[in-house]
Amino acid sequence: MRLIHVLFVCLGNICRSPMAEAVFRHLVAEAGLSDQIAVDSAGLGGWHEGEAPHHGTQEVLRKRQIAYDTIVARQIRKEDFASFDYIVCMDEENLAGLRGRAPAGKKLYRLLDFAPELPERNVEDPYYTGRFEHVYRLVEAGCRGLLKHLCAEHGLIYPAD
Ligand code: 4NP
Question: What is the pTM of this model?
Fold first, then answer.
């Protein structure tokens, strides 16, 4: 079966989208779906290209023993819109930025579209607020919902809760 490609996008690709990449890859591995779902992340801006995730993101991931050692910041590229089946961003500002670059008709998502149980629709930017633990909880809820959604849409077996 063809791999399903998921790209997480935020502004700088050092706080939120690398966190989502790490958490989602971890959930996918736990579910035994690593050979069916590929995960990456990118930023709308290229200011942090080549950098490891922000220390606040590293800290929340390390605490939960979620690996992030392969993650390096990069800017989104034109080809990404064709290569990735699901482009999932963090807030409405990201969505507007993506819409300006995406080919017409390309479906774009916000992570919290997959966590309708939460009051938030945007994953706030901890680069400015410092609230990495709060952001982690939003990211985890969104990633769990996204995995359920992908499993339902592609007929994959989702492990029992
Ligand atoms: P992120 O946070 O979009 O969650 O990675 C940011 C990181 C860096 C900047 C902005 C947001 N920056 O302007 O450098």
Answer: 0.98
Tell me which H or E stretch contains 41.
strand 37-43
Mean pLDDT of 12-39: 98
Question: What pairs with residue 101 in β-bridges?
Answer: none
What is the position in ligand 1's atom list of the atom closest to the CA of 11?
3
Q: Is 132 in the pocket of ligand 1 (CB under 6 A)?
A: no
The identity of residue 69, as a single letter, is: D
Place of tokens 């939960």: 64
Given a cut of 90, whether residue 1 has pLDDT beyond it is no
Q: Which domains does the chain have, with CATH numbers?
A: 4-154 (3.40.50.2300)
